[in-house]
Amino acid sequence: MKIKSIDIEEFADGEHRGKTVRNIRGDSLLFRGGSRTGKTLTFNAILYNLLGSRHTIDLATGHQNKVELEFTDGSRFFRGNPTAEYEDDEVDLTGAEASEAFQDKIGDPSLIRSHFVHSHIGKMPLDNLSRSQRTSLVREVTNDELRQRLNRFERAEEQLNELVIETKDEDRRVAEDVDEVERQIRDLESQLEKYEDLQAKIESGELEELSSQLQRDEELDEKLGQLFREKEGLRKQLRKLHRKKRKEQNYDSEVKEIIAEAVNDFVCPTCDRRISTEKAKNRIQTGNCPYCGRSHSLDELKENLGERIERSDDVLEELESEIEELQEQKEDIEEDIEKLRDERPEIGDLDGFVKRRLDQHDHDIQRLRDHVEEELESILESLEEVKSERDDLAGRSERVDKRLDAYTTALESASERVEELTEESLDAGIREFSDAWEEAYNEMNSNLNLEISINEEGRVQFPGRNSLREYDRGGNLSGSELQLLNISFVCTLSRFAVENDVTQWETIVLDEPFSNLQEEENREAALEYITGLDRQLIVTTSDQDLDSEFNKVEVLQRAPLQMTLGDYL
User: Fold this and answer.
1) What does the pLDDT look like over 167-176, one tens digit per residue?
2) Rounded CA separation 355/345 (Å)
3) Which of 423, 443, 461 is the last residue of a domain?
4) Considering only CA atoms, which of 130, 192, 181, 127 is closest in space to residue 375?
5) How many Å is the Cα radius of gyration of the chain?
6) If DSSP codes are grouped into helix, strand and coil, which group holds residue 512?
7) Given strand 453-454, what is the order of strands in its sheet?
8) Domain holding 119: CATH number?
9) What is the mean pLDDT of residues 478-498?
């Protein structure tokens, strides 16, 4: 994929005069002009079309931008403000759809941007790329077979990770269902015990005696009724407060679980999306959410989450205090009931449950007997159903646990393989890339043979007399070395990317590529190397001597100086 035509209508708020170049046909192109003729603007205009204003180098593009490129594969892309257009043999798109389709076509923005070498050394690809991005790009463009295997395992790892998380969620839901069923069983068994005890009191005649005693002593009946009502009211309040407490505790537990998953599995706590570590890092650098890529404040998320957790802690503290107070009141009521039992032994172990059933049936023992029998039958039936549900849940829990174990084991295996292949791919890729880069550099530099190496951290190093020199320490390298290192790096990167079908992009754009090459031999060697590449070269220069080396030359003119009489008044 090379450039067939360029149409710069407006760019950088009118700073660029505009330029149309047709019939390039994928051939190399030279833009020649003197100072302030728009060479670097033309360089950035092409970059703007491909990747947008965020990726231009050392330039604020402004709002007036209209740049269109046609490509040798028959496609066309226009980028302006605020619209975009993309068409090929199959689609004709506008707006966000056009931008997205074109981005999918050309591939990784970091890789495409690295095909552009700015004239300013501090803005060149090796300076713009972080160390991790360097190794990431090298890995991306080398070891195609290893990379494909690695990608397969990475996809498997991602899918297994999703399955593990989903299965953990299912396991938690099943555990919650089991807890609820167990609670129902406990409640039903408690009800069963109470009704069986009540039935025994009926059949023994004990309840009839208690009923007679209460009917004869209205004061005792009223006193007991009041105490039992107060106790029941407190019990209901306590039950309600305990439910609230469990809810807050569950929230706190869920928050911790979400945070743990977000840290360990890169699961977004707001949108539930998963993303790779590298993509997350890149998104953080652009100020977006590392997980979903959307533009929203992480600080706000943290603040809101912190406030909610703090609020939950306060609520829990208040609930515990309220529960403690009500529990004390309930214990006081129970003491009053025990005192009354000591004073009136004839009421025996009469409790609130029995008293309420007597009152509900107006002390009619036969009606109460019928009611007890109906309730016992219903409770036993419900108990059987709930226990059957518990058995089903136990089986489901066992199956979920087995699946979780299998997914976890498979995930561990996939993760280990990813780690092994990553290291293998990185090591092999670095060696292969370093050798090719070194060869390219030395073909451009006629003075000496330089050894180049990239370590696993992305450091670019060169053996020196006493120690290793490093690219990041620019003071140890001459301007000529820095420029040739960047040009040879880009040429090597492009070669591997195309050979391994990483990208269709086959164009390298150089802004004043020989400005720092003082020695004629180096200029000639570098020129011979880059023009001999099977790549489209688009070069900006002020050097007229380069015209003969390019298939097509476009001369850039300085904007005419327009003055009026008013300028002098």
Assistant:
1) 988 998 999 8
2) 16
3) 423
4) 192
5) 40
6) coil
7) 453-454, 460-463, 468-470
8) 3.40.50.300
9) 90
